[in-house]
Amino acid sequence: MIEATNYSARRALLREKLGNAIAVIPSASHQTRSYDTEYSFRQHSVLKYLTGLEEQDSILVLCPNNIERPEVLFVRPKDAMMEMWSGKRLGPERAREILEIQHVYPIDQFDTILPELMLGHTAIAYDLFDASAPQSLHKRLLDHAEKLQRTKRKFHVRKPDGVINLATLTGEMRLIKEGNELLFMREAQKITSRAHRAVMAKTAAGINEKELQALFHYIVSKNGATEAYESIVAGGENACILHYVNNNKKLKDGDLLLIDAGSEFHVYASDVTRTYPVNGKFTPIQRDVYEIVLSAQKEAISLSRPGKNLNDLHQATITVLSQGLKDLKVINESVETILEKELYKPFYPHSTSHWMGLDVHDPCPYLDGDLKPVSLREGMVFTIEPGLYFPPDRADLPTELRGMGIRIEDDILITDRAYENLSSSIPKEISEIEEEMKRDYRDFL
Ligand SMILES: [Mn+2]
Fold first, then answer.
1. From ligand 1's centre to the CA of 381, what distance in Å?
2. Beta carbons of 279 and 204 less than 8 angstroms apart
3. What is the pLDDT along the chain (445 residues), one digit of tens a residue?
4. Using an 8 Å Cβ cutoff, are 18 and 64 in contact?
5. How many whole angstroms separate alpha carbon 269 and alpha carbon 260?
6. Residues 327, 350, 368, 435: which is the catalytic one?
7. 14 vs 25: CA distance, rounded Å
8. Structural domains in the chain?
9. Could you tell me the distance, in angstroms and rounded to a whole number, from the CA of residue 386 to the centre of ligand 1?
10. CB-based burial, 272-282: b 16+ in 10 Å, e otherwise
11. Ligand 1 centroid vs 301 CA: distance in angstroms?
């Protein structure tokens, strides 16, 4: 059942974490695609997380030291003509009621009101590395702080003279998923599973990667979701390009297809990769490499539980992959040497896991206060995605390996004692995949 998300409790917790800092949290701004066309709007994850608000041109300000106005929101004013062109706006009054924020003003009052709100705070907390925020805002905040510093009056009042990175505080909060967050993430998984399985059933020689991407998109859209990121649909050696998004080549008989795609439901992501043969049947060498990657993944998954950390999972993964590279006679060194000299890296250059949530790569901390890897706790969600990639131009490799790229990725939730594989319904055993590929893709529409 969907309960109301307790945004106000999240804001209260963040105000506590802020100490004497004032937080400024802008909405995402529209991004130009070309000339006067724009990419579809996607709200900034943190503003969404703290308010539920979907609108652009809004800014939330949290002022823990302001007793009168501890939280203030700025939104676009009502404007019948503008709303006729580009859709309804909440406006300050409705925003106050719906979002349960007491002080809501039109956005054009931001620069007038902000200096008042800054008083009593010693720092500005702001997402320093947020590429989606309005370009000019950072500078405006510093200008306001500077003006306050130069004001002779109110010398007895504290004024911000430093900046802290807000993302560090919100990243900590976002590490643990609770309540509706898990509900939305499970729904995203359901949709992703359906879409992946349809693509698996549809895949055949002669089909263009773009058509499979379109099928994935169709199922995701039909189920009320969007894609969490640009899908990677990579036939044959395209799989060796880690962020291949051209997705415009015809699939060839005898090749593998690597598809890394996930839906986003209520702004919560999923992120799943499967690799399987275009013609529905693994060749012996494809099978060998696939089984190595699969066993590395299973090893890391089996270690997932409270108290372990993502580095433990990565170490387990590279150990299995290194043994595999030795067995395949790609590297003729001992596993210890392969690990010590990182000889696996040309074939496995990325890490095994990343946090996942509102963002597909959720910006949560990987190290704790002592610079040790963060210990896994109940409610954390992350991916496990080992792979092996054999570049097509490596003349020193056995011919049958050249241009082969395999990755298997699942999404893992830490439970009180162990883990739950959120994406387990998407086939990944060789026999399961070969069966699934015989199905009619229309079963999943
Ligand atoms: Mn991933």
1. 12
2. yes
3. 556 788 999 999 999 999 999 999 999 988 889 999 999 999 999 999 999 999 999 999 999 999 999 999 999 999 999 999 989 999 999 999 999 999 999 999 999 999 999 999 999 999 988 877 777 898 999 999 999 988 867 678 899 999 999 999 999 999 999 889 999 999 999 999 999 999 999 999 999 999 999 999 999 999 999 999 999 999 999 999 999 999 999 999 999 999 999 999 999 999 999 999 999 999 999 999 999 999 999 999 999 999 999 999 999 999 999 999 999 999 999 999 999 999 999 999 999 999 999 999 999 999 998 999 999 999 999 999 999 999 999 999 999 999 999 999 999 999 999 999 999 999 999 999 999 999 999 999 9
4. yes
5. 13
6. 350
7. 12
8. 7-174 (3.40.350.10), 180-444 (3.90.230.10)
9. 10
10. bbbbbbbbbeb
11. 15
**Catalytic residue flag (residue 407):** yes
Closest CA to 389 of 352, 338, 351, 349: 349
Enter the pTM of the model: 0.95
